[in-house]
Amino acid sequence: MLKKVALACMIGAALVSVAGCGSSDKKDAATSDKKITVGFSVSTQNNPFFVTMANSVKVEADKLGINVKIVDAQNDSAKQANDVADLIQSKVDVLIVNPVDSAAISNSVIAANQAKIPVITIDRSSDKGDVAVHIASNNVKGGEMAAQYIIDKLGEQTPVAELEGIPGASAARERGQGFHNLADSKLKVLAKQSADFDRGKGLTVAENILQANPDIKAIFAQNDEMALGAIGAAKSANKQILIVGFDGTDDGLAAIKSGDMAATIAQQPDKMGEVGIDTAVKLAKGENVEKNIAVELKLIEK
């Protein structure tokens, strides 16, 4: 019976008084004695943006003295589902997920809900399930910023192409939505195709697009990795193409400095990771948190 009461005290949402748990002072002492463990499922570590994010998660966790378990989904939704299932089984206090696919992650979020583990999504959202906090940049606004930059530099009705990210990722949908909010009426979008946020695929897709559409003057890539691939395609085709990326990775910023890339819509993956851990600790302690936390975007050009 005592074990059941103790378990109720632990799970019972720190804010809810459970009969037999004793005074609030005793509960606070029990909470402080237990080291918080956070699980973080990151979509991939084959992208500098998410490497930075995962590193900042670890640094902030070390700074706050909490445990963190980081697992790499390798851009595979099935692997991410298995990884999250393992984290739930290990009884992490809070789960942070950077989804590969916003629809595919839904069942994992629901499973965490059923296990009474608070869920934070970061950079990309989940289509279903109860997410306690979503931390992300305003991707729609970022897409609009990219389109406006092309309009400002090359004028309205400029022929453009778009390299899209992973089709199921909320960030890809939202960046595309923002771009087309302006581009559909003020630019000529001659081609758009997914390159899965991947540099190698960005090169191949951009090569094919430029070969089929020789009039293209600008390319918006939904992340810097695809933009870097597009740079290679433009050089191979011996064309001067205005290329705009998204994320603000070190490689992207270096390409801007060298003049190969015109601009990027810079996110702050280190800030996302830091805020993710800070928020996870608050959730574990039963503190109030904001449902949506926005991380500022910046347009960076040479």
Helicity level: 40-55%
CATH superfamily membership of the largest domain, which one? Answer: Response regulator
First-to-last CA distance: 67 Å
Based on Cα principal axes, name the global outline: elongated
User: How many β-strand stretches?
Assistant: 12
Are there runs of 5+ residues with pLDDT below 50, and where?
A: 1-32
Query: Count of DSSP helices?
Result: 11
Radius of gyration: 22 Å
CATH topology of the largest domain: Rossmann fold
Main location: other
Pfam families: Peripla_BP_4
Keywords: Signal
Subcellular location: Cell envelope
What keywords describe this structure?
302 residues, alpha/beta, Rossmann fold, 2 domains, six-stranded mixed β-sheet, 11 helices, disordered N terminus
